[in-house]
Structure formats: C-alpha cells, structure tokens
Write a structure and sequence with these properties.
It is built from 12 helices and 7 strands. With about 350 residues, the chain is of the alpha/beta class.
Amino acid sequence: MPFSFEADKYRGKAREKYLEAEKRMIKIHKKYPEVKQAYSYLQSLKREYSMAKVGIFNKNKMQKHEIKELEGAIKELEKQYHAILKKNDISLNYKEPDWDCEKCHDTGRIYDGQKYVVCSCIKDELRKKKQLAGNLPSHLHSATFSSSNLNYYEHNIMKNSELSYFENAKKIYKMAATFVQNFKINEFNRGLIIEGPIGSGKSYLLGCIANALIDRGIRFRYIVYSDLLQQIRSTYNEENPSQDEKKIINDVQDIPVLLIDDLGTEKASDFAASILYQIIDKRYREERPIILSTNYSLENLKKRFPIMGERIFQRLLEMNEYVELAGNVRIKIIDEQQEA
C-alpha cells in the first residue's frame, strides 16, 4: 500500500512514551518510598551480579558460592519488591512505557534481521485516515474481498436464472475485484450498477471495493445520496458554511472513483434529479467511473426522477455494467450472531 513514512514523527512518539513512563516512575517512587528503596537496592544487586558473572572484579573475583548467594538474595528481594507493589496496587510494569504498538514500540518500524521495515500499525493508521478521507462508514472499515463469506448466499437456483445465489454473488464479487485491479487513472473504466433487495450485501460490497482501492492508493468517495442532498441543503441555512454547494458537488464530480450507496432512498424531487444529473453528466463526459447500489430496478429509478431521468440512466448504462445481487444475507448473519 503506498504510504509516506515520517520517521521523525514516530521517533518523537516513542520518546514521549519513555518520558511518560519516567514521570510515572518518579511519581510512584515519591508517593511510595518503600517501592523506590526496594527497586534501587534490587538494581544495585543486579548490577553487582552482572559484573561478577563477567569477571570485572579481576583483582578479587567472587567465588562461585558467593555468586550463588547473590542470586538467592536477588530472588528474595524480587519477591519482597513484588509483594510491596501488590500491596499498593501497583503494576509490575509501572516503569515500562505504555506502547500503542508492542511490535515496534511506537517507532513505526521493525528490524527484520536485514533491514528496517514499516510496522503494520503505520499501515493501519494510514488506512484509517484514507477511510475517513473517503467518507467510508466505520461499519465498512473491515470489509475486504479476502474476508468475504459468500457462503451466506443460498446454493439453490435463482428465479429466471441458471445460477445459484452463491454463484451469482461470486460472479459479481469477481467483477468488482477486477474493476479495482484493472483501474487506471485517466482511462475509461467501466463501473457497476448493483441492484438488490435490502440485506443482499450491496453496502458491504461497496466497502470491499473502497478498501481495495485504498490498497492500490486510489482515492475514492463514498456517499449515500440522501446524505449528500442534506449536506447541500444545510449550506443554504448557514451564514458562513464550511463548504458551499459548488464545492460539495465538485468533490464528488472530480474524485477518481465515486461510490453511491442506496440511490433511491432519498425523497424524489426536481432538486434531487438536478444534482444527480450534474454529478453523473460530468463524470460521464470525463470518463470517471461510478459504482452505484440501489434497491430499485432501473425502470423504477427512472420514475423517481421524472425530470432528466432518461438522460441520467442512459449515461449510467453507458458507463456501467448492470448486475443484480440477490439474496438476504443480513438475516443469516443476525441469526448466526444470536446463536453465538
């Protein structure tokens, strides 16, 4: 996944964690002198033991039995030290930094034996930023093609089809994955119109597409059309809106890949038709793809947009391949969760 690793930022983060741990230790030692005393004495004995083991006291080497006695003293003091901590409800790790990532200790990189590689926590952080930038809802953050369980779709044959619900879903998921794999900026990329009933997994599929686009470093914008209309309307009632209508529309017109979820749930109006036409017409002319999901057939969608409906959906059919994702997987998932 393309990313920009800011080494200084993460070195600073690790340093802050060390400083926090140091402050915590000083605070505890000040509040509980017996903890400080036991810790200091224990560290002193451990240093003495280490030096004895490597023979630093060359002039007066410790005998084996003396080293053994020192080992015993250290073990006994450790027991006393741990008992003091337990009595005062202090963690055994109170001196250690509270790392956000145990793998890299918040440095952002790990040594693999030959070279430093970027830690997975950095990739996770970047993914979250891109999901936020693309307006992807949190419930779709974990949606991926690799983790999709298509066995939720029935294996019986669909009505008026030679395919089972499972085979049909597998075919559509493959088409969606191929779209992402073959996508190229500034080239014509045929999108998808995904029709299906509530609970058929349309939104989840859009989430899979969005996260796969992130893996390829491709910018996208996910919108629920009714939410977009509300966002535009809200600018009319604000004296100094953070974004005006033109900026909102331009953002969805110009993004490399636009994902529109649940088209048709908005209230049918000339306003809704006009905004939709502006978005689709510009993307049509500039050959920017759209992935669109809806509960309605194209014929019923046209009826919801009597003004410019024919133009809108003629362009959509030229830009996209139409597929129907059938089945109700949501009920199966809910039933499975309730049984667990």
